[in-house]
Amino acid sequence: MAGSRELIRKWCLLVILVLASSGILVSSMKVVKELPGYDGELPFYLETGYIGVGDLDESQLFYYFVESQRTPSQDPLMLWLTGGPGCSVLSAFFYESGPVEFTYVGYNGSMPSLHLNPYTWTAVASIIYVDAPIGTGFSYSTTAENYAVDDYKSSEQLHEFLRKWLLLHPQYLNNILYLGGDSYSGIPLPIIVQKILDGNNAELKPYLNLQGYVLGNPKTDNYIDDNSRVPFAHRLTLISDELYKEAKEACDGNYIYLNSTACVEYVGEIDDMILEINLMHVLEPVCKTASSRPVESLRGKRRSLEENYEGFLAAQANPALWCRDYNYVLSGIWANKREVRDALGVREGTKAIWTRCNSSIAYTKTVGTTVAYHANLTKSALKALIYSGDHDLSVTHIGTQNWIYSLNLTLYSDWRPWFMDGQISGYTMEYISDYGFTLDYVTVKGAGHVAPEYKPKECYEMLDRWFAYYPF
Question: How far is the C-alpha of 349 from the C-alpha of 61, rounded, in Å?
């Protein structure tokens, strides 16, 4: 079996080279056997490359593909997206679920060291990590106008990307397919899922063996998500009972579209109470010098700070000054090394400075809610895993549960704890529809906005159980 898969892989490489040389398809791939910072040959299969999408393939989406380290021919295949919009998928690769991660102890400013991630999701699934939309990570376009992307165009491009990728990797066409993502991926991902179902129904080739989707702390509905921050902050005693009661009465539970002077004043007080709280994880320090994830407050104020290399090194010398965002600095140092770009096969001249989260991309948020997409997907036989780090104040578990409730699914298994190593790791509920659709909602106790960053072992266990249809 391994020999036949290797023959297929070599055949695909030959096809790509022929097509690229003829100008028919502007795509490329490279098998990466060594990564700068990692000692020795990689003990897993890593492939990087570009897939051209859009008119004349002028937009080039860069991807990292890691083959399952268990049984690739039988394990699921998953396309993974990162949020932002504009955050590189290297963030997920290094800080969430990829096979390697950075070594921080003793870092001195040289090439960052890498070590194996014991809780990598690629232990049980093959994962395609893709930089999207255009302008994110190492993805680029040959024309300036193609950098202007919105939610619909990005979803269309990703759908095209996936179909082309599978045509170039036919050995995975029969594998179970899942789509996954977190944060802002909650907007494009349900749209892509719907496009895949529609394409399959229209008998588009190739047929995609889609079985479900995974979303973590997903941005889903502008109003529901943002409005839930106030009751969430109250539950965590970040605002007093008195202030919450007065704000709730004055605003009639609506803290976004303020309808009275009193409501404006109370929401202003609430904003003041949580202004110095880390919205990504309420128990961790606010990152004053190394933040690249701007977040809006209830009144639209933005927190936007720049990554700071000197601040990172200073924090290493004094652990009391540590902030999680300092960790992200290493990805910028690593990805901007010439030897790294050579190893990854990044095309020269296509990216000047790599940034983990590119806040300057020409992206238009055209979709304010994807609840209707989720509602339509419940009429299929797919399965969904929606999970929340329960200490996230940016996309709260309260808001996520509220839009799940609105789907009017049948409650199959009520709120109960799930365990790992004999300890409660969070709580879970299961819903079903009359069409065979199932939705598992899971909280990860103690985790923040991107749950695997905070609780890698628990999130690995969660995903492994879900893939195997094992109850939480």
Answer: 15
List, by residue number, the catalytic residues. Answer: 183, 392, 449
CA separation for the pair 263, 451 (Å, rounded): 33
| CB-based burial label for 276 (10 Å; 0-12, 13-18, 19+) | exposed
Q: Which domains does the chain have, with CATH numbers?
A: 25-222+367-467 (3.40.50.1820)
Pairwise CA distance, residues 365 & 425, whole Å:
34
| For the chain, counts of helices (H) and of strands (E) | 15, 18
Scan for tokens 């704890």, then name that residue.
Answer: 417
Give the chain's radius of gyration (CA, Å): 22
What 3-state class would DSSP assign to 5?
A: helix
Contact 181, 387 (CB under 8 A): no
Q: pLDDT tens, position by position, for the chain (472 residues)?
A: 555 445 544 444 444 444 443 334 457 899 999 999 999 999 999 999 999 999 889 999 999 999 999 999 999 999 999 999 999 999 999 999 999 999 998 888 899 999 999 999 999 999 999 999 999 999 999 999 999 999 999 999 999 999 999 999 999 999 999 999 999 999 999 999 999 999 999 999 999 999 999 999 999 999 999 999 999 999 999 999 999 999 999 999 999 999 999 999 999 999 999 999 999 999 999 876 444 444 555 655 544 444 455 555 555 556 567 788 889 999 999 999 999 999 999 999 999 999 999 988 999 999 999 999 999 999 999 999 999 999 999 999 999 999 999 999 999 999 999 999 999 999 999 999 999 999 999 999 999 999 999 999 999 999 999 999 998 8
Concatenating the DSSP letter of every residue in 70-111 gives: S-TTTS-EEEEE--TTTB-THHHHHHTSSSEEEE-TT--SSS
